[in-house]
């Protein structure tokens, strides 16, 4: 009888046992290497007269986290530049090499790609990539040498495919408009990205897309400044405390001068070119960084933040033991409740990712062969594991979805203990079933009285509880319009292209995509459109804020939820709505004063 009462009244037993996991010998660290391959043939004089390709190389190298090896190869008639692979401390060698590049001669892409693949084959990196920039096909002094270069190119592509080397190709100029061009086959055959820039001025945007979408580098835009030719003073907020390294990258399509900074950190270094500047900050001590510079009047200067962490995880284990439901069981049913926390690899007293910036961000957990994805809550990941015996679990983490670059995070070995045995009990006497029946009937009568006397609850319509997540309005005036193309409506009917005049709105007006579609006469409901907001931004831009579960992409980059993004002139945005059926594309156009009259 004692055991029967314990099952009825105390079904759950709690046992809290703090537990420290052992760090596994291997850390979840992936070595990476990238080679930038540049076509430096004579035709580049026409397609890139201001040498924006050199700035693109600088942008790529400066954007890569410090754990990357980087290399540079340039070709014309032959190989005309070759730095080999260097670590973060020696990247300035590559920049010095690029300054000496002269656009001249023929285009021996076969020799260039062969050398780039050779460099990466000799690297011990786990992830190897080539970023190639070309403005045309193979072209040598005669047909025989042109054919020879093409054959060398194809062999290099085959070798890259066998080695797992991914090649991303950016085509420049009119000749590369056709993506069936032979140069692009390197990307098609190695699962790389194919990109096209009609003009050299668009190369920085192409490189940024490769860096974020293909190489997976996490970066955020801290500011976009409209330069007036004078000194600009900017305060940059760091939303990621205790980072191992934060890289500030300033880029512009015109020269940047007199870059100065004011902050506290354990270390700092600066690399400056004509149209870019990189400030590498080791373990910043302040949440604000002060920076000043002089930009060219009429140009825009963009400031990117690239944060890096090296991490050691910790775990606390508590056990929940229940009376087993299975007849004849010898032990309690046990569940291990795990709480993972994360610490700075250089100082295990510093706990990471507890701030609002990281709240609800996802981290993958691999426990043995089982994979899960959990969200951070105040810097903690919670998980539950059923324990049937004494065991050791290998735990690893996937931080690729975090908005920061995690250069290393140690694996763990977690020891779990089986549940204790059930207590041995004496044979139980025959229960007084008559008494139990009377008690149950009495309890049922009391419960019925309580139920019928309980006041009715007031039901609240979900429609009256809609949350308003509108962002703060902008201060600048709207100066453009949206060209809208509904590629798939909920009903399946075709809808003609639409246009919405933003410039008619007051500066403080924040509108949703749903309101824009309704103003254009669209009666259908696009799920999630009421939580996608448009507001005015600085420098003739608009700000897009996503509070929905829609999938929103710009230039191959997924726009995160609960974050705001500036859209400059001609920015194109694709939206797949929450019903997973309807889709639309809009393009932001800036209008001249005469067009807004």
Q: With helices defined by DSSP (H or I, 4 residues minimum), what is the helix count? A: 10
- End-to-end Cα distance: 89 Å
Mean pLDDT equals 88
Helix content: 10-25%
Features:
597 residues, alpha+beta, Rossmann fold, Tumour Suppressor Smad4, 3 domains, 14-stranded mixed β-sheet, six-stranded mixed β-sheet, 10 helices, 33 strands, globular
Describe the structure.
The protein has 597 residues and is an alpha+beta fold. Helices cover 18% and strands 39% of the residues. Strands 1, 2, 9, 11, 13, 14, 16, 17, 18, 19, 20, 21, 22 and 23 form a 14-stranded mixed sheet that branches. Strands 5-4-3-6-7-8 form a 6-stranded mixed sheet, with helices on both faces.
What are the SSEs and their pairings?
Blueprint: H1 2-9, E1 12-15, E2 22-28, E3 32-39, H2 44-47, H3 52-63, E4 68-75, E5 79-82, H4 92-99, H5 109-121, E6 127-134, H6 143-163, E7 166-172, H7 185-188, E8 194-197, H8 203-214, E9 220-226, E10 231-237, E11 245-252, E12 256-262, E13 265-272, E14 276-284, E15 288-295, E16 300-322, E17 333-344, E18 347-351, E19 362-367, E20 370-375, E21 381-387, E22 391-398, E23 405-416, H9 433-453, E24 480-488, E25 498-501, E26 511-512, H10 513-519, E27 532-536, E28 542-546, E29 551-554, E30 557-558, E31 563-567, E32 572-576, E33 583-590
Parallel strand pairs: 3-4, 3-6, 6-7, 7-8, 16-23
Antiparallel strand pairs: 1-16, 2-23, 4-5, 9-16, 10-15, 11-14, 11-16, 12-15, 13-14, 16-17, 17-18, 17-21, 19-20, 19-22, 22-23, 24-25, 24-33, 26-27, 27-28, 28-31, 29-30, 29-32, 32-33
Helix pairs in contact: 3-8, 5-6
